Amino acid sequence: MPTQSLFLPQTIADDAAFRAWGQGIGDAMVACGLVRQNDSGHIDWTTVAQPLQGGNAGWEIFRFNDGLQTTAPIFIKVEWGTSSNGVSGKQMWITLGAGTDGAGTLTGWMSDRLDLDTGNNSGRTVQQTLVCGDTNRILVFQDIGAGVSFGIAFAVERTHNAAGGDTALGVNVTTHAQTAFDHIYCSWAFGQISAETAAGALVPSTGSGSIGSQTMVFPIFPPAGPYLNPLMSLMVVFAANVTAGVPFQVGHYGASRTFLPLSTVTYTPKVRGAVAGLTYLVRWE
Amino acid sequence: MPVQTPSLLLKQTSDAEFRAWGKGISDALTAIGIPKTADTGQVDWTAVTKPAAINTAQGYEIRRFDDALQATAPIFFKLEFGSGSATTNPAIWLTIGTATDGAGTLTGLLVARRQLLVVAAAGALTTRICGDTNRVILAGNSDATGATTSFWFGIERTHDAAGADTDEGLLYFSSFNAVTNIRVGAYLFGTGVIGEETTFGALLPSVGAGANGSAVALYPIFVSKGVYFNPFLNVLIAFASNVSTGVQLSFTYYGATRAFLPVENVAIVSGVRGSVAGTCLLMRDE
Q: Which end of chain B has the least Cβ crowding within 10 Å, N or C?
């Protein structure tokens, strides 16, 4: 099922909450179409304990399961832990690679180990997390109503040709943690090529991004020298032009695709020029 | 002739110097195909005197487009010539509109009068003026070693996706001296100025230099009216490291091969969204 709407612990109060959080997301990623690798030493969700503040409790490795996986394999290592800001918060690390050694170490090229850290959570125990994907992509936006200090998200997708078909050229990983944004493009042959801290979306610094019945949505372009074709799973839009939580159709890559606007309670996109009033559109199909 | 490169001394310590640079620009505009109107009171380059006070306009010209759309979608612009922060420092004022009163005043909705001022240059430099009956770009002191002696502006019609002019409006930009002085926007007939920004709407990466092997990215400039117009046809942005200042390059743009010239980026500064450094303007050179 390509879309998963989960209600998972926002506050990591104990071992049970930690396990429910991590396993919940991992299981959702599998349900969307990724494969959980059986590398030795992976985290055991039945026995793992909530780590100390800032601690890393263990890892899982996921992989794509599409037609390109045999020739351009993509592996995603997810490490699970608690926030460096407080033991009740969450922290995860995302690393991409071209293979594994079967014991939890990525092999071949690798991306940066991206650190996604929240503030120290307290109070609310459960929040909504959105997971969307397929055998060739995954997007996770956590705790979407929790507030800016508690949002951590990541999205991974292959590069695309002009028609939107996946290519073996490389992979894009986008992360958002509190107010920090990272986008990394890795070529499959050489690994990480570029890393930006603001989305490559051209958003006007004046106006509202709409006129009459027309509303602009802003694709995000990965730089690889010249730009690659834009991301398919994530765009930005002026929040005033959409209704958070209400999916709508967007013509993108020549087809009508379903996107879901997020609220700005937790996630506010960072784009070139620091344009305000934006929200994410996440692919929701 | 669409490209004019007069060597002008942008300085005015005498009446002769003032007349020389002003007339140089005037003659170049005529030569590229942008005629003066019949408005009364336009500057007489044989008689005008240099400004006696700062920030003072001594005379004006009213120019108009001369293309097929001018009859139904008229574009006029007023250029005033005078002084900037010192009497010896040149300045021009640019106003854009769609009608005149015949006596030197643009009427109706306007792109507001804006002063473009510079510091007097030490010697003559190339002012580059390129255009046709439907477009104009002026880059004063385009090859200076700094931006303090340079001013630049451009006006072109809006375009359809194939690059053909439309009667929807016009795109404009103007600037002088520093990146902070950039103004770029659009004017819709019947609505006026829309979407004016203080940086060029070009999406440049914040890392790298836009090149990979022999593939080099060039960046169109977009203005928004709520949704983006098709981009400027006559100016783009490039990373300066990927081009050679003053060396023409041709590439396919809007479906046709077109010639552009990279202008010196320390003279004609090009601020883009995100303050990406190392950029330069590509100015249409045909």
A: N
